[in-house]
Amino acid sequence: MATQADAQELAALRALSASIGRSPHLTQAAGGNTSLKAGDTLWIKASGTWLKDALVDDIMVPVAMAPLLKAVEQRDRAADQPQGFTIAALNPRGLRPSIETTVHALMPQRVVLHVHCVDTISLAVQADGEAEVAKRLDGIEWAYVPYFRPGLPLARGIAEKLRPGVDVLILGNHGLVVAAETVAGAELLLRRIRSLLARPARATAAPDLDALAALAGDSGYRLPADVEAHAVALDPESRRMAQAGSLYPDHVIFLGQGSVVAKPGEAVADVVARLGTSPAAILFPGAGVLMRSDASAGADAMQRCLADVTARIDIAARLNYLTASENDELVNWDAEQYRQKLNAAGG
Ligand SMILES: [Zn+2]
Predict the structure, then answer these.
(1) Whole-prediction pTM
(2) What are the pLDDT digits (tens) for 320-343?
(3) Which of 79, 91, 118, 127 gives 20 to 30 Å between its CA and that of 212?
């Protein structure tokens, strides 16, 4: 840490990060990340850690920014492995920086917040998302970046869209980035953009817990951690959207491709027999959601996220889903396997 002012800003960023991490409408599980530039060093959230732990755990990793940016510019695949750019002397725990480190390095502002805001995602999965956002962000310096896999591809996509003055990015099928010179400024901008993009969620009935208990039988499937998660199985429109595929990367990482919906009359055992595998979550139309007994806390957070996102999507909108190859590259990606390993370990 170069100066006392930097140290104060880093402390402020940790407090803001913890607060962002506690809001399921802004971040879920190990998703989302925050950063501060201090001289040539980028302090960024460590991969696999949760923003909500920012005050109780040392989750910020120092990265040498200039060589990382050079790698992005040269399309060097080293940029896909930001751990190669950590400053070892300042990283005693040997943490890996976020797989989205390049997003932060590319923004020129000192403080960058990247969140998986459910209002933003609900717009950013619509085929008309860019036009819908444009109506809401009039007067803001923002840019729309279509979907790319996080890492070098997303960094290249952002580099193409960045122009001087831009401090808000809407990432297609992904989320929101805001940037400012101070932590306080970034917090204000995040609040402003959130309120401009806010959308009401469709109301749903309560889950049928007795029916779910009967459907689970002795399968070991359990209720989701959050009661809000059931909405995606209860609302027919949300269910239709979920069943049609994967809408954003962390869904694939934590829950697998798309969503499994039980057919009429099927209990958990029937679904598992039909698929030949036990999905992390099963949607039972009209009843609610059941999670596999060993589903991680991250899986629970993402199942709730799916309910929160789909409930906000315009039911008349055409949606952009991740393609088969985009799904595959997420599942088979080394950096994500590392993050999942930390997640499974409870990180
Ligand atoms: Zn992200």
Answers:
(1) 0.94
(2) 999 999 999 888 876 666 666 666
(3) 118
